[in-house]
Amino acid sequence: MRTYLECVSCFVRQALDAARRTTSDPAVHQRVLRQTLRLAAEMPFDRPPPWMGQQIHRLLREATGSDDPYRQAKREANELALRLYPALKQRVRESAEPFETALRLAIAGNVIDLGVKSQLDDDEVHRAIDGALTDTLDTGALGDLRQAVRAAKDILYLADNAGEIVLDRLLIEEMPADRVTVVVKGKPIINDATREDAEAAGLTALVRVIDNGSDVPGTILEMCSAPFRDRFVRCDLVVSKGQGNYETLGGVDGKVFFLLKAKCPVIARDIRCRIGQMVICRDDPNRDPAGSR
Amino acid sequence: MRTYLECVSCFVRQALDAARRTTSDPAVHQRVLRQTLRLAAEMPFDRPPPWMGQQIHRLLREATGSDDPYRQAKREANELALRLYPALKQRVRESAEPFETALRLAIAGNVIDLGVKSQLDDDEVHRAIDGALTDTLDTGALGDLRQAVRAAKDILYLADNAGEIVLDRLLIEEMPADRVTVVVKGKPIINDATREDAEAAGLTALVRVIDNGSDVPGTILEMCSAPFRDRFVRCDLVVSKGQGNYETLGGVDGKVFFLLKAKCPVIARDIRCRIGQMVICRDDPNRDPAGSR
User: Fold this and answer.
1) I need a surface site. Which of A129, A283, B39, B93 has the fewest CB within 10 A?
2) Interatomic CA distance for residues B24 and A136, integer angstroms
């Protein structure tokens, strides 16, 4: 997905939010803001929004001298999700449709976006989970994904955020363990899951975990490592979590299924769904993008 | 008021909104957006937000070749407000507190912000007016303003937007006509009222109307004409409408009373009021600005 013009004010807002999250030094806030404005002014808008996310967070790491400013937030998100995990696993076990229930809970992980807020109260978490269990879902696409999982010999599961990755485990456990490889980011970027988070989620003991060699908050193939690109080409199914992966992989390959919550009007327009909708959709490399209309 | 860092993403959003309002040419949208980002990157943040508004709208006028892209919107806002005027004037006449009622309706004009939306339905307008008539108001400040109006020999009334200026007339009519001078902008800037709007509102037949010689969407004294600056210094009371005038004149002189609706979190924090609150406050040039805490 290209960057829409209305994404730009959002980059500026997010850069300031991230700077304030990372340091209390107002000189750094202002420097990061001004550098973001300069970058955005020259940004090629045919690149997807996560390209800019990568640039901003590189600035931020340089400005703060911290290579992983979200480490503590990611740890807390994992801990919170791990506390929820046993009861949710029970729900999947007792469900008449364990695959669907696990998938809904994995999307709920993207709903909750455990990295965005430093603290989530229990009520909020339970509301998000209850919503995910009852919201409408494209059952046709769900059936296609279930079928594709059964048929696939080599499944890549592209994780999104820390915390969320614990709920992904519920869905991954409904897939044949010897055919699934979980993919995390190669370097810390915002609250995206890295190998450390896959370990905390207990995934490394369960399935193969690789990283994509990149610090883009999404998956820009040409910026990923050669081994990951090779795996991406050879696999027969990709399960892709979250907006960042949709923004970077949409229109790339029909073997990709996107699972996400559409959180902003630009994404909703691009997917042609409502804001707030739970989305499961197969990629269509030939479709006419909404932005070109 | 200085520009807070969170104002910057709002400039970017507003520049794109304004570009889209003004032309359907996507090349112009992108050019104005990129130029705004470059300007914002180098902007002195000790200048008030309307300084940036002036720059953006100069860009826009250049890019579109139109010296007054909001002319039609301003005309429609005046026409709408003029249709409301007779019934509102009746309400003032029948009120036990005509000055307060007129003042509330003048602030309602700022609430409605007739320039922001191209169309307002009747319900919306009536809700805004009913709200303004019943919302809490600082009665101490109201009493101070009433007293200041009685005592003043030379009152400057700084108008804000087209449409709104028709409702300002209700309050101006509660002041001694021979002691009031209404001030409009020197050149078209967004939907700010110019002489044309004062005429449409019937004010030129009622009181003196001057312009401030500037195209800032607020009042930056050093950018105003020498005759206006001279009037500002010599007068004994300034009634200032709207956020733009607050942002540029706050902390300047204790003879200024601000009337506005606090529409954004930055203004609300600076004034120390709730978002959405109707504000009447006397300027305090000695107060510690909220931003320095």
Assistant:
1) B93
2) 36
Which residue in A5, A10, A37 is closest to B41 by CB distance? A37
CB contact under 8 A, B30 and A45: yes
Closest among B7, B41, B9, B8 to B270, alpha carbons compared: B7
For chain B, what's the residue count? 293
Residue of B5, B16, B34 lying closest to A6 (CB–CB): B16
Which of A75-84, A110-119, A158-167, A178-187 has the weakest average pLDDT? A110-119
User: Whole-angstrom Cα distance, residue B146 to residue A204?
Assistant: 73
Task: Give the per-residue pLDDT at B288.
Answer: 63
User: Which sign does the torsion angle of CA B57, B59, B61, B64 carry?
Assistant: negative
Chain B CB contacts of A29 under 8 Å are 5
Chain B residues touching A34 at Cβ < 8 A: 41-42
Chain B residues with CB inside 8 Å of A16's CB?
5-6, 8-9
- Whether residue B121 has pLDDT greater than 70: no
Nearest by CB: A5 against B6, B9, B33: B33
CB–CB contact B5 A34 (8 Å): no
Q: Is the pLDDT confidence value at B118 over 60?
A: no
Of B171, B202, B149, whose CA–CA distance to B95 is shortest?
B171
Strand partners of residue B208: B181
pLDDT tens digits for range B220-237: 999 999 999 999 999 999
Joined tokens for residue B245: 């005038």
Give this complex's ipTM.
0.85
**Residues A221, A248: Cα–Cα separation, whole Å:** 8
Q: Whole-angstrom Cα distance, residue A202 to residue A166? A: 8
Q: How confident is the model at residue B191 (pLDDT cuts 50, 70, 90)?
A: very high
How close A38 comes to chain B (CA, Å)?
A: 6
Best mutation target among A37, A39, A43 (most B Cβ atoms within 10 Å) is A37
Residue of B2, B3, B12 best to disrupt the A interface, most CBs of A under 10 A:
B12
* Predicted confidence (pLDDT) per residue in B134-187, tens digit: 999 999 999 999 999 999 999 999 999 999 999 999 999 999 999 999 999 999
Helix axes B7-22, A7-22, angle to 10 degrees: 180
| Cβ contacts of A46 on chain B, cutoff 8 Å | none
For A40, which residue in chain B has the nearest alpha carbon? B37
Q: How confident is the model at residue A73 (pLDDT cuts 50, 70, 90)?
A: confident
CA closest to A34 among chain B residues: B41
- The backbone torsions φ and ψ at residue B237, rounded to the nearest 5 degrees and listed phi first, read -155, 135
**CB atoms < 10 A from the CB of B126, how many?**
12
